[in-house]
Amino acid sequence: xxxxxxxxxxxxxxxxxxxxxxxxxxxxxxxxxxxxxxxxxxxxxxxxxxxxxxxxxxxxxxxxxxxxxxxxxxxxxxxxxxxxxxxxxxxxxxxxxxxxxxxxxxxxxxxxxxxxxxxxxxxxxxxxxxxxxxxxxxxxxxxxxxxxxxxxxxxxxxxxxxxxxxxxxxxxxxxxxxxxxxxxxxxxxxxxxxxxxxxxxxxxxxxxxxxxxxxxxxxxxxxxxxxxxxxxxxxxxxxxxxxxxxxxxxxxxxxxxxxxxxxxxxxxxxxxxxxxxxxxxxxxxxxxxxxxxxxxxxxxxxxxxxxxxxxxxxxxxxxxxxxxxxxxxxxxxxxxxxxxxxxxxxx
Length: 347
Ligand SMILES: NC(=O)c1ccc[n+]([C@@H]2O[C@H](COP(=O)([O-])OP(=O)(O)OC[C@H]3O[C@@H](n4cnc5c(N)ncnc54)[C@H](OP(=O)(O)O)[C@@H]3O)[C@@H](O)[C@H]2O)c1
What we know:
binds NADP nicotinamide-adenine-dinucleotide phosphate, 6-stranded mixed sheet, globular, Dihydrodipicolinate Reductase, domain 2, alpha/beta, Rossmann fold, 2 domains, 29% helix
């Protein structure tokens, strides 16, 4: 049990508790033994009154527009950007610190954008805005690796292609992938009324995530550049990406090409990556091993494989990474931010 009476333990709200990220947050609060004095589960009016359990205790879901944020010290938000824009200011005005999973505050100069393994020092003080932003789900695993390469060799450029799962769009994304795949098998040729993915994601890949910008890049691709620069404190970092949705339920993959400032020795690269916190390199036994979204055995680590130095340019190399988007890419990063705040007494 992590429900405690200790007055130092925070009172917590989870806004978006019924969603894919919210459900994962609840599971992590339980499994990591996060100590809390009270917990409040919040979502839209649609699910008000439904019951969810935390540590074996049933709690009714409360509608956000009726929720008093004065009751909590810490609020996790994963209810979409519009909900964050509307309700995060109410939470911070009421005195709560917010850990926000949406794009709403990520590039705000008064809001730290934090991956605890990379820039936890930004949590030494309570942020001016009262908000700590959780980065994009593909950016989090990438910057964790980029930091190791930057420290050892320096980075000239990184070129990334992502292979992002349907659960990146939450429960509705997963439901639509399953239903449209079933329909495509049962009634081939018949059009399925997709809402989340256009065109259909069933037996398909879609090289567009989020909306197109005037540059021709998508917002998802721009997020990966801007957020990587902010987290790593490298305003001129050159990261360019193509973000692709693939018919996988959970687990984002990325093919990453990095050109370093100096010549890279493959064995040393594997050592550097393997020594990064909570990273597993699937390489030591045999170079033919590789991680995939359905075969990784630990969703709390970044999995790396296919580490190859380019024989024609030994400063450049490829790697393949797989990271669970709901844990590493969202809920676990948020919980680790909370753990760091509690350890630093900056809540
Ligand atoms: N899925 C990922 O891999 C991932 C990764 C990083 C960040 N995120 C971000 O996290 C957020 C949630 O994603 P998700 O995947 O958990 O989505 P989801 O499964 O669709 O869940 C959405 C949650 O938000 C609630 N909600 C929606 N509109 C609301 C409103 N106006 N007011 C209050 N609550 C509202 C929903 O409540 P009801 O049940 O009442 O509708 C539900 O609890 C999104 O902003 C997303 O971009 C997701």
